Amino acid sequence: MLFxxxxxSVPDPRYERLLGTVCFVNLYESGKEACYDEIFxxxxxxxxxxxxxxxxxDLYRINSFADERPVEVCDDVFSVLEMSQKVSxxxxxxxxxxxxxxxxxxxxxxxxxxxAEQSEIDAILPLVGYxxxxxxxxxxxxxxxxxxxxxxxxGIAKGFAADEIVKICKKxxxxxxxxxxxxNVYVYGKKKKxxxxxxxxxxxxxxxxxxxxxxxxxxxxxxxxxxxxxxFKSKEKLYHHILSPADGYPVNNELYxxxxxxxxxxxxxxxxxxxxxxxxxxxxEILPSLRENFGxxxxxxxxxxxxxxxxxxxxxxxxxxxxEDWQSASD
Length: 331
What we know:
The protein is α+β, with helices and mostly antiparallel strands. It has helices at about 35-50, 60-65, 75-90, 100-105, 120-125, 155-170, 265-280, 280-295, and strands at about 1-5, 15-20, 20-25, 70, 135, 140-145, 175-180, 185-190, 195-200, 215, 220-225, 230-235, 235-240, 255-260, 300-305, 310, 320, 325-330. Helix 1 (about 35-50) packs antiparallel against helix 6 (about 155-170), helix 3 runs parallel beside helix 7 (about 265-280) and helix 6 packs antiparallel against helix 7 (about 265-280). It starts with a strand and ends with a strand.
């Protein structure tokens, strides 16, 4: 995600490496040290409980013991688990946090990525299935129905964190802010003059260059998942980080990237993965029911390998495709 902030002053932003990425917050002229301090204290708290490799974290305890007994977790983790399960159910399992054994097999984001053999995938796939994650809302516990299951919350935790920062901004009556948690963007409040923010969606073929799409948006979150974000190459073949819960391989379809726009960043975060796995047509079909079930605005932008860009039907925001060799298309 890129920001187009040419007409704004940018005093005293703050950033810190948390949640596996660089977390950037700019409160503009409403920025106060106390507000910044509370935001980053909250981010560090979230980082502590969602860490996958720190023994004191809730996520570590879940992956270590939930296949043996129910594991009690904090409210933050339980709310993310509940949202994860609801998204999984409403997307036919396209979003599934139980893919962690596949993530560990492929090691795509590590220094030692691995091209998985079919036999290795076949051995792990029985452990993947969100229906085998059992939540108890009364006791705030989670357990697994199968030995060896593990979960990965990397596809939703940053969205939760962005929503928590927004709560703090409201508490301090911040007038405008930009929150960027490693590409999970929330533009908060109203930009000066127009009231709308300009947010860019990257060109997947040249992600370090000018954005492919410019969106003009009110207060809202924009989250993107794409093949260009995290990947490795082996024998000239690219293996990206978005894995199919159905067959265990990196998803191979018509898409370069999917962006989801919603006032709920946690939901947008999860849906970018779900929509990428489902593909454009099926995602478009279920979008109305998702809006109804969650009660939030949800819009989507699909960037395809054939240089077509599709927007969800009756897309309510102004946009511009900035490259001549790309074109806006419709169903």
